[in-house]
Fold:
Amino acid sequence: MNASLPPVLVPQADPGASYRAQKAEIDAAIARALASGWYILGRECAAFETEFAAWQGAKRAVGVANGTDALALILRGLGIGPGDSVVTVSHTAVATVAAIEMVGAVPILVDIEPDTYTMDPAELEAVLAAPPPGVPPIRAVVPVHLYGQPAAIEAIVALANRHGVAVVEDCSQSHGARVGERTCGTLGRAAAFSLYPTKNLGALGDGGVLTTDDEALAERIAALRQYGWRQRYISDLPGVNSRLDEVQAAALRVKLAALDAANARRQAIAAAYDAAVAGSALAPPARRPGTTHVFHQYVLRCGDRARVQAFLRARGIATNIHYPVPVHLQPAYRGRVALGPSACRETEAVAASVLSLPMFPELTDAQVEAVCDALRALSG
Ligand SMILES: *Cc1c(COP(=O)(O)O)cnc(C)c1O
Structure:
C-alpha cells in the first residue's frame, strides 16, 4: 500500500454493510436457528428452498454448500462426467470452469460478445457444429449471466435444443435478472446460484442454491448433496457432502425478503453512473434489449485503465477488476483447455479494459455522488 494514498471513502464492495442494514432481523433469525438445536438440513433450509423457488418462479430449489458445488451437482445430476464436454466462457469466475472439471468433464471455452460480456451464440454454434479436435461429445452448455446481465439465453437455448444439449445457467451474479417477464434461472434445465457474501443474495459465509422445474432431477441432486441418501444411512447413489446449514439459511431468508429492493437500489446507482459517464471516453455497460440487468457489478470499459483506477483511488474511491486474467490464460488452465474458433480474442481484449466501480445497495447517496463527481472530473 502506498502510504500517500487517502483512506477509502467508497469501498468497491461491503458485505458488512448488508449485514448491518438488517442486523436486528438477521440476529433474531440466527438466534432462532441456534436455539432450535438442529443445525443441518432442517426447517430453515427447507423454508429457504420453498421461498427461493417461489421467488424465482421455479418448481424446486435445493440448498447446497456453495455455488461451485451447485453447478457440479447439477452436472452430476444430469449424468454428465468423464467422457463428456461442457461449453462455457473464459470470461467468468474460475469457479464455473472448476465445477466442470470437478465432475470429470472437459470444458470448452468460447468467446463473449464485446458489448454485453456474455457468451457469443455464434461461437457456441460453431463449436456445436464442429467441436475442437480431440474433445469428447458435448453434453451441456453453461451460459453465465455475468455482472447481473442476462446472456443471449434465447439464442443459446435454441442452439442447445437443436443439438440435444442441456442448458445449465450460472446465475451466481444474476439473482433476480429477467428476460422479458421470465427470471434468469428458469430458462434452461437447471440453474446454479452462489450465495457468497458479496453476491446480490449473499450469506454470512459460504452458501449455494440451485433451481429446476425437473422434479426427478431435484430429487436426485437432493440425494447427491448428502452421500446419496434418500433415506438416512442408506446411499442409493455415490454422493458428496454439500449442504446449506441452518444458520446460513435463516439469515438468507431475511435477505431474500429484501432482495428486490436491494436490486432496485443497484439499478438506481447504475443509472447515476450512466449519467456521469455519458459523453465521456468511458464506455458504460450495455443493456441487452428486453432484459433486466441487476448490476452485481457496474463494469466500465476504459482504454487507460490504470490511470482511471489511480485517479479514482486518489479521491478515496476503490475499484476492482472482474476479471484481470481470463480462465484460459491462468496457470492452472493455460495451454490445456479447448477454445472456440476465435481463441477468445474478445475475452482477452475485455479483460484488459474492464473496471468495476463501487456497487452495493448500501452505498449512500453521498458516496454515489462522490463517485459521479470523480467520473465527471476525470472526463472533464
Ligand atoms: C461466485 C461465482 C461462482 C462460484 O460461487 P462460490 O459460491 O464461490 O462457489 C460461480 N460462478 C460465478 C459466475 C460466480 O460469480
